[in-house]
Amino acid sequence: MRLWLVGAVMAAAVAAVVTWPSLNSTSWSWVTSPTANAKHNGAKVALTGSQGAVRVWQWAGSSTAAQVRRAGLPAIIIGHPSTVEWPCRHWSPASLAKLLHRVPVKRQRSSNVFIYTNDGVPMATAPESFFDRNPHLSKPPLIDMKAEVADEFLQELLLSQPGSSHAYVGCPLSQVLPPETLQAQLGPESRDFFPDQPAIEVNLWIGTKGVEAHPHYDTSENFYLPLFGKKTFVVAPPSVHKAVRLYPSLHWHYRQTQVSNLNDTGQALVIELQAGQVLYLPPFWFHHVKSPEPSISINFWSESQAYNIMEQAFTSPVPLDEDMSTSTMCLRVRLFIRTLLFRLGGVMLAATLPGAVFEQRYGLLRGTSLPATPCPSLPSVRAWPEERDPDKLKLESDSMKPHLLRLVGLFQQLQGDVRDLYLANFIEHLLFRVFGLDAVPSLLLYSLWFQPFHDRKYFV
Fold first, then answer.
1. Alpha helices of 358-389 — where are they, by DSSP H?
2. What is the pLDDT averaged over residues 401-407?
3. Whether this model's pTM surpasses 0.90
């Protein structure tokens, strides 16, 4: 039976492409301040790293959105119709209470920082015995979320005092507003952000004073509109993904960082927004969002082209059969991974990426608790005679070639750091699907398992 890497968990682990082309346009201006804050039409940008600038654009229709998206950099847009014409521009706790009936509210008392939890990933659905074998892992947290009366919650939004619970709302607007009301509150220009995309998600964000969203990345393009109160975005480019130590893609906090301060990367931008401005955040940029005061915002999301490309990769069949012997399965997985990495980045990438994934994603989680060596459920590397059998290697290489070439072609459409991060996600999930959850850290850590084969000609 052929094995496939499919499912919502796999699709959720994809990454997105960020490009950095230069633009020649008269509709934007630079905001730069290497030593102090800079203001431009109310937007304040504190530069804490080497990025050095953020662009401010004057809205001129959907062509502006297209230019901003092509630039692939965070940007501030002024003069958008949402700031002067859309009914939602008047939203406040009092006015929004007249439109909403109930809202899904997350509450926390111990911390003002909310971190996204996905209850469908492998570690979140693991049996109790998995946590018994891995005591360094806490169990997935229970989320205190329930539908609350909107009027009561929004009154509380303005009256929140230190010591009370922190509350946060993040949901599709279509979940809390009927279609006719939603359409009436947004102007026709709402399609101008993504005129080429058939599916756009419009979300509502409400936070009490001091609430923060833990640093993370999204695979979507994001146009963010604060409507009431101020918001602070600390953002950093995809190149910091190693420094921020992402949670494993198998973990319930995937896409979230284990390092909580993006400023420590030396490449962070601190962007302070207020009502009347629009922030564009490219896919896969890390962001830490703060509400220095009670706030109401909406945003427009559309999945990036790279996300759709990577869905094809994760739904591609892997040339493995369940009736293979363990030894043959191990050989083929090793050859498959090694060849994929070799074709995309040469010997250096093939030899270093798996171990780097363990160090960056599992090192902090495990502390001094290292996995067994080698994985107890697998045979010793030296017990695999097929690796030294040229005929066997040639046979396995030839049988995998069509699948590998298709996968290589998909990965080649990604760039640099984003490609490497997604490769890490792919390797984690492949090892999990074939060998099980417990085996993944062992197989990533012990470099013997990933030592190069003796002859590169078997890298198809």
1. 363-366
2. 88
3. no
